[in-house]
Amino acid sequence: MELLIGTSLIAAFIAGIAALFAPCCITVLLPSYFGSIFRTRRKVFLMTFIFFLGILAVFIPLGLGFSALGQFFSRYHQVIFGIAGIFFLALGISLLSGKKFVLPFSFHPKLKANNIPSVFALGVLSGIATTCCAPVLAGALALSVLPGSFIWGTVYTLAYVLGMVLPLFILAAALDR
Question: What angle is formed at CA 47 by the lines to CA 42 and CA 50, rounded to 5 degrees?
Answer without folding.
Answer: 155
